[in-house]
């Protein structure tokens, strides 16, 4: 099936204003890099999202979900098939002591909404640069808290395009893993169960964690966020720092001088620059310390034509 046929069919499902051909992914990722997607579709309803999945399954079309592009590196050759982006499914509301957030909402915004309603338990997420769906997939955590500590249940699309409800136990949340990741589910909505707290205490905690993030992380440059998982018994950033890699890189990509666990797009880096810098880091750390760094970030898409 060619791109024009896919575009025609998807506009019938999602609406003409929500489907884009040959869309540059650099505008949809926090690294500000990446080639073009054949088709980018941004459904505005749960049913449209489910129908898109059914369409890809029926026609065996390559498919990828894009969260808010915070944990993803898109190769310079772009992405074939269909990319779905939940940017229009990003509402957040409070129901009693629960925060109900759609999959495309930013997890930071959900945390701030909880704070604004004097609900405690969500403060740890005030600096996590990802979507609610992405946070659920990876059981995101920071500063001593994890998604599994507060999740109640999730509504998601399964691999066949059916909308299902998953309880906390059914989500099988563990370190950077979940049943959503293992089975390729798509999060439409997550319900977080919190507790009433003291407004000043909550705000002070959020302000402190925000300050820590802003002073310790290189937020002034585009990046994928934390590149590597924490290896057992070590800290990835410390290994990279001790390997004297800060300030080094390929092309416009560089290991941050502010936080060694980050690789930044310092000056018009290509995805190829970024990925080669990742490999430089992995190779050097392996040589110096015998530790194999595992990616936390996801690399997708195809190599540019000149590298094939």
Topology:
Elements: H1 3-14, E1 19-24, E2 36-41, H2 46-59, E3 63-66, E4 72-74, E5 79-85, E6 92-95, E7 98-102, H3 107-116, E8 119-120, H4 132-138, E9 141-142, E10 145-146, E11 151-157, E12 163-167, H5 179-183, E13 186-193, E14 195-196, H6 199-216, E15 223-226, H7 236-242, E16 253-255, E17 262-265, H8 271-289, E18 298-300
Parallel strand pairs: 2-5, 3-5, 4-18
Antiparallel strand pairs: 1-2, 6-7, 7-13, 8-14, 9-10, 11-12, 11-13, 15-17, 16-17
Pathway: Cell wall biogenesis; peptidoglycan biosynthesis
Function: Cell wall formation.
Enzyme class: oxidoreductase
Describe the structure.
It is a single chain. This protein has helices spanning 3-14, 46-59, 107-116, 132-138, 179-183, 199-216, 236-242, 271-289; strands at 19-24, 36-41, 63-66, 72-74, 79-85, 92-95, 98-102, 119-120, 141-142, 145-146, 151-157, 163-167, 186-193, 195-196, 223-226, 253-255, 262-265, 298-300. It is of the alpha+beta class and 308 residues long. It folds into three domains: 3-85, Uridine Diphospho-n-acetylenolpyruvylglucosamine Reductase, domain 2, CATH 3.30.43.10; 92-214, Uridine Diphospho-n-acetylenolpyruvylglucosamine Reductase, domain 3; 218-307, Alpha-Beta Complex (Uridine Diphospho-n-acetylenolpyruvylglucosamine Reductase, domain 1), CATH 3.90.78. The two termini are 23 Å apart.
N-to-C SSE series? HEEHEEEEEHEHEEEEHEEHEHEEHE
Q: Please give the alpha-carbon distance between the first and last residues.
A: 23 Å
Number of domains: 3
**What's the CATH class label of the largest domain?**
Alpha Beta
> Got a strand count?
18
- What is the annotated CATH architecture of the largest domain? 2-Layer Sandwich
- Structural class of the helices, strands and pairings? alpha+beta
Report low-confidence residues grouped into runs of 5 or more: none
Mean pLDDT comes to 95
Helical residues, percent: 25-40%
Overall morphology? globular
Spatial sequence of strands, sheet with the most strands: 6-7-13-11-12
Gyration radius, in Å = 20 Å
């Amino acid at each position: 099936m060619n791109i024009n046929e896919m575009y025609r069919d998807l506009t019938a499902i999602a609406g003409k204003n929500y489907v884009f051909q040959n869309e540059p992914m650099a505008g949809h990722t926090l690294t500000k890099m990446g080639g073009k997607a054949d088709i980018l579709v941004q459904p505005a309803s749960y049913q449209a999202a489910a129908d898109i999945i059914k369409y890809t399954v029926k026609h065996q079309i390559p498919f990828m979900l894009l969260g808010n592009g915070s944990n993803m590196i898109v190769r310079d050759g772009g992405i074939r098939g269909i990319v779905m982006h939940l940017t229009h499914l990003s509402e957040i509301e409070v129901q009693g002591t629960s925060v109900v957030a759609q999959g495309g909402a930013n997890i930071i915004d959900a945390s701030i909404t909880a704070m604004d309603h004097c609900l405690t338990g969500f403060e740890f997420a005030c600096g996590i640069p990802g979507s609610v769906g992405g946070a659920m997939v990876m059981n995101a955590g920071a500063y001593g808290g994890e998604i599994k500590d507060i999740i109640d249940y999730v509504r998601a699309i399964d691999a066949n395009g059916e909308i299902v409800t998953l309880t906390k136990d059914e989500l099988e949340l563990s370190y950077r893993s979940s049943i959503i990741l293992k089975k390729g589910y798509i999060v439409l909505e997550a319900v977080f169960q919190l507790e009433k707290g003291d407004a000043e205490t909550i705000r002070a905690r959020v302000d402190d964690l925000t300050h820590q993030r802003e002073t310790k992380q290189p937020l002034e440059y585009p990046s994928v966020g934390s590149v590597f998982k924490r290896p057992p018994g070590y800290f990835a950033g410390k290994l990279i720092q001790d390997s004297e890699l800060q300030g080094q890189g390929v092309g416009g990509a560089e290991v941050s001088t502010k936080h060694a666990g980050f690789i930044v797009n310092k000056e018009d880096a290509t995805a190829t620059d970024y990925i080669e810098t990742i490999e430089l880091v992995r190779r050097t750390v392996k040589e110096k310390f015998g530790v194999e760094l595992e990616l936390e970030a996801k690399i997708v898409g195809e190599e540019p034509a000149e590298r094939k």
